[in-house]
Specification:
The complex is a heterodimer of chains A (349) and B (351). Chain A is of the alpha/beta class. Chain A is built from 10 helices and 16 strands. The model of chain A has no long low-confidence stretch (mean pLDDT 95). In chain B, 31% of the residues lie in helices and 24% in strands. The radius of gyration of chain B is 21 Å and the shape is globular. Classes of the chains: A alpha/beta (349), B alpha/beta (351).
């Protein structure tokens, strides 16, 4: 675990995710300031953290006396405000930032955040919690140990869990699993204004198909007319893994080895009848506690698991899916500065 | 139309053999056509009373065509020509393996001719004949699960056309309309175990229906894991897969609903795991694959052809061809594809 090099914490946004960050920050740092634009949420913050300074804007903090350089800042607002807040923090001298996903609401904004962080020596971490569960790395390790080969496909199905809100975690999971970013995306993604968090934010339904080269794909199919939770499978040559993010439980089964040996052609399909593993893989966790690990990395001086670059690649992948759905064609990834859609902003969270 | 008294089975592969068994059991005078001498020899051994010929011409003057049911069980690219060959000879009951044809124009041309000449033409989409659509609907009603909103089928190298065509037809029947468009990453590879000249399509196809309903088929050519299908409703899922083998090969389903505390809710965003198991086993009314094959044969031999008419076969073939086109051109393809268009005329190496 990285040693903390910051001694002060600043949280921007005190919604459901912000509250969890506040609890962790209050435990980890002697001083915590909270910025929240909504007055009712500010009251809740004051009640929960009576010793913290709680304000409605960064400007309310004493610019001269606030220990900006010694502070880890956590951005836990809606996606469209992330880039602006990051730059405000950077202007004030903050050098450690944990940003909730999505890193930004356009590929250009995400790229600019990453570039500025690199230029100015800012530690920028994105809270892609699945990276902090360690499941993708452990699954690869287990597959190598059991000679299952490389993962070849990831398929997630569910109801209105949103291709951006939850999908961004899984597209990043796929990138970690395949050890490469997606090269293109196609699909039927479309946004609807049915987001319970904020009416102005979209819930993105439909299906997105990301290609990772060599026939590898990640497919997420989320239907806005259903409320069922996400169900996710990772395919190997002759095995399949069911992955549950909430508790980190993974169930891995393979085909009968004699059947595969008798008819080795890939087209001779069969059921995964031999259970290899059911539980938490070594060195993995469920979702609980991942935020603390992300904060520690942001406030530390060691290596970072989910860097700004990882966040920017995922933003590009998700926005690419939205563009593919709208334009009705496949989109090359990442969205580069030469792309007509690089700077287009999306109401995602 | 009187029930058929004879049968001509074109193609004596794994499926053709099964058709022969059913037709023989029904007591129909059997004729078998296959271009390969070794296969003809095998057919003659298995069915010594049958006439065996290398092509249709070999049966001219021997068979009373108008009293026969024709069963086309060859590879997809030959279906249309064989259909017209049978039709020209006066056969008026024809069951054709999927895909009905290997181009949209050829498929709808078969449907048009059947209508014009009074031919009962049916496509062998086995899920229809096994009664799965009706069985799924019964389960939806029994457990008050509401209307299906999505069908997602995923697994290893099952072939987006070879097996996917059954599921796009299933979706069409379940949603009670053909798909309106398709987007896909489909790629054909020459790994087809049936024939080296036939493609085997992997990748993912997303067919859109009205009301935000979708059918998604994702078959990776890099895995050998059997596929599973999931019917998604507002607050429940129905998982469907084939179990068993040979004559016992049959569909099983498990229906799961979100537990109390989550849905039902007025807000669709409340997500809950589908932990409450409502049903598991063979859906009532659903037959095995073999029973479906029997039902298909009898349906056409008796002159009905209502269970899976040729039009359903043409629509499914067009939906699959649309997916291949979408994958190649990396764009969404609107359906139906006009038969007379350049896209409609293009022939594909599918089976």
């Amino acid at each position: 675990m990285a040693d903390l090099v910051r001694s002060s914490a600043l949280l921007i946004g005190y919604g459901s995710v912000g509250r969890r960050h506040a609890a962790a920050l209050a435990d980890m740092f002697p001083s915590l300031a909270i910025v929240e634009t909504d007055s009712a949420a500010r009251e809740r913050a004051r009640a929960a953290h009576p010793t913290s300074k709680v304000g409605s804007a960064l400007a309310e903090l004493d610019a001269e006396r606030f220990p900006w350089r010694d502070t880890v800042a956590v951005i836990a607002t809606w996606g469209p405000s992330h880039a602006r807040l990051f730059h405000e923090l950077a202007d004030l001298g903050v050098r450690s930032v944990l940003c909730e996903k999505p890193l930004a609401s356009s590929a250009a904004d995400a790229d600019a955040m990453v570039a500025r962080a690199a230029r100015e020596g800012i530690t920028l971490v994105v809270n892609h919690y699945l990276r902090y569960t360690g499941i993708a790395a452990a699954l690869r390790g287990f597959a190598a140990e059991q000679a299952l080969g490389e993962p070849v496909a990831l398929v997630g199905t569910g109801g209105a869990v949103c291709l951006a809100t939850n999908g961004i975690h899984w597209i990043d999971f796929a990138a970690e699993l395949f050890a490469v970013d997606p090269s293109s995306v196609t699909g039927s993604a479309f946004g609807e204004e049915i987001n319970p968090r904020a009416p102005e934010l979209l819930i993105v339904g439909g299906t997105a198909v990301w290609s990772f080269g060599s026939g590898r794909e990640a497919v997420l199919s989320f239907n806005n007319r259903s409320s069922v939770a996400l169900n996710l499978q990772v395919y190997f040559r002759d095995a399949v893994a069911d992955v549950r993010a909430d508790d980190g439980v993974v169930r891995i089964a393979r085909r009968d080895r004699d059947a595969v040996a008798a008819y080795p052609a890939v087209t001779r399909c069969g059921p995964a009848s031999e259970l290899l593993f059911d539980g938490r893989l070594p060195d993995t966790t469920g979702a609980a506690g991942t935020g603390v690990r992300a904060i520690r990395e942001a406030a530390g001086s060691g290596p970072v698991t989910a860097s700004g670059r990882v966040g920017a690649a995922a933003v590009s992948a998700v926005i690419g899916a939205l563009i593919a759905g709208r334009e009705r064609r496949a989109i090359e990834l990442p969205l580069s500065p030469g792309s007509p859609w690089h700077a287009e902003e999306w109401r995602i969270s | 139309m009187k029930p058929a008294t004879g049968a001509i089975v074109l193609g004596y592969g794994s499926i053709g053999r099964r058709f022969c068994e059913v037709l023989h059991e029904r007591g129909l005078a059997l004729s078998i056509v296959n271009r390969r001498p070794a296969v003809r020899q095998e057919a003659a051994l298995q069915f010594p009373e049958a006439r065996v010929a290398a092509d249709l011409e070999g049966l001219d003057g021997v068979v009373e065509w108008s009293t026969c049911v024709g069963v086309i069980a060859t590879w997809g690219p030959s279906h249309a020509a064989l259909f017209h060959g049978l039709a020209d000879r006066g056969v008026r009951r024809i069951l054709c393996e999927k895909p009905l044809a290997n181009s949209v124009e050829l498929a709808f041309g078969m449907v048009d001719r059947a209508r014009r000449d009074g031919i009962v033409l049916a496509a062998h989409h086995d899920l229809r004949y096994a009664g799965l659509v009706a069985a799924v609907r019964r389960l939806l009603v029994t457990y008050a699960l509401g209307e299906p909103v999505a069908l997602v089928v995923h697994g290893g190298a099952a072939g987006l056309v070879t097996n996917g065509i059954h599921w796009i037809d299933f979706a069409t029947a379940l949603f009670e309309e053909p798909p309106r468009s398709v987007t896909s990453s489909a790629v054909g590879e020459y790994i087809n175990p049936r024939s080296p000249e036939l493609l085997f399509e992997g990748g993912t196809a997303v067919w859109e229906f009205g009301g935000s309903r979708e059918a998604v088929v994702s078959f990776t050519n890099r895995s050998s894991i059997s596929y599973q299908a999931v019917v998604v409703t507002r607050d429940a899922t129905m998982q469907i897969a084939y179990r068993g083998q040979g004559r016992d090969l049959a569909i099983e389903a498990s229906v799961r609903k979100a537990q109390a505390g989550g849905p039902p809710s007025s807000r669709v965003m409340v997500h809950a795991g589908t932990d409450e198991l409502l049903f598991q086993g063979r859906p009532p009314g659903a037959g095995s694959f073999y029973e479906g094959l029997r039902a298909a044969t009898i349906d056409v031999a008796d002159g009905s052809g209502a269970l899976c008419p040729g039009l359903a076969g043409a629509e499914a073939a067009a939906a699959c061809i649309g997916a291949l086109l979408a994958g190649r051109e990396r764009r969404t393809v609107q359906l139906p594809i006009a038969p007379a268009s350049a896209e409609g005329r293009e022939e594909w190496q599918i089976s």
